[in-house]
Structures are given as structure tokens and as C-alpha cells.
Amino acid sequence: MNHKINVVQQDPFASPAACDEKKGEDTRVLELDAMDSGFTDFFLISSGTNERQTQAIADEVELRLKRDFGVYPNSVEGRRCSQYHTPNF
What we know:
Blueprint: H1 3-10, H2 14-21, E1 25-31, E2 42-47, H3 51-69, E3 75-77, E4 86-88
Antiparallel strand pairs: 1-2, 3-4
């Protein structure tokens, strides 16, 4: 079984809690059907009020997954502009 799925099964609230801690708004976890989606199992969506806050939210999610589960992103898109972040775990 994929380690990433095990992280979500162990603590499905770890990433949303990280968003909430940094005052993320409208945080949602979307679970995708494995039969329909071949590229990911989950999407975590959260909003911030400015670029600095979105960077803090993204950093906290990444830190928590590293610290608590030993999971590192394969790649991250949008980090430089801080308007969106799409880490691929």
C-alpha cells in the first residue's frame, strides 16, 4: 500500500489542522475515487488572505508531514509567487 495513503489513514486531520493553525480559510480535503483519478488520491484546499499567509500555510503543512510522518514532497509548484502552492507528495 502507498505510504501517502497510510498517512491520511493514520491522521486524516494532520494537514487540515496545519492549515487551521495558520488561520487558513475554507479548508477542505477532497478524496478522489481511485478508479477515476490516476494521479492523486486527495486534494487539500485552503485559502489565505495574502501571499505571506499562503506561504505560511504551505510551509506548515509541509513541516507537519515531514516531522510527523517522514513524508517529503516530490515537487512543489507556485512557491516563488506565493499565490498558490501545489506540493506533490
